[in-house]
Amino acid sequence: MKHIILGISGSISAYKAADITNRLMDKNFQVNVVMTKAATAFITPLTMQALSKNHVYTDVSQERNPSEIVHIALPQNADCILIAPASANIIGKIAAGIADDMLSTLVLASKSIPKLIAPAMNHIMYDNEAVQDNLKILQKRGWIIIEPREARLACGAYGKGALATVDDIVHSVMSACCRTED
Ligand SMILES: Cc1cc2nc3c(=O)[nH]c(=O)nc-3n(C[C@H](O)[C@H](O)[C@H](O)COP(=O)(O)O)c2cc1C
Q: Is 155 a catalytic residue?
């Protein structure tokens, strides 16, 4: 059984993380969900807990088990990290090395496991030089970027910024985290 950390950030497509969780569990992954505060406005931790059958982490200062520190222990015990959907904000924070919530902090505390990130945002945000530069930084550091699709976006505009399909995301995770000999 592979162990994946699924980071969810504040995007309208956060509800798709429920389907991603189901699909990864079908593939025999143990899924530990970590949500930003903004993500909890789009989909509840309770939903993600019920689907993943695991506690959902939302707060870096909430330590339920005195024998470990979650943001250190979680990535140490994980085979890979997926952030889907990834907001412009979390992409920028990771690129800048900021650690001000559970998700951004545990990313900094993770070593050389496969890391995948699926951006989702308005097409103007996605095209913004800051976002593109930040994605290049992540790619240079070994992150696998799961490119967004061109589609009708939540704001009504058509452009590149829609979260990749659940199929593409699950396929990318399988290729990155499950070598055939594993
Ligand atoms: C209805 C709505 C939809 C949003 N969708 C997105 C989105 O798809 N991508 C994005 O980068 N930000 C989106 N935002 C803005 C983020 O939620 C906001 O930048 C937030 O600070 C992100 O925080 P986080 O990265 O900690 O999750 C949306 C905001 C609202 C109100």
A: yes
Query: Tell me, what's the pLDDT at 182?
Result: 52
Q: How far is the CA of 87 from the centre of ligand 1 (A)?
A: 6
Domain layout of the chain by residue ranges: 2-177
> In this structure, which amino acid lies at residue 58?
T
> CATH number of 2-177: 3.80.10.10, 3.40.50.920, 3.60.15.10, 3.40.50.1950?
3.40.50.1950
Whole-angstrom Cα distance, residue 58 to residue 55? 10
CA 160 to ligand 1 centroid distance, Å? 16
Closest ligand 1 atom to Cα of 103? 26
pLDDT of residue 6: 98
What is this structure's pTM? 0.97
182 or 113: which leads in pLDDT: 113
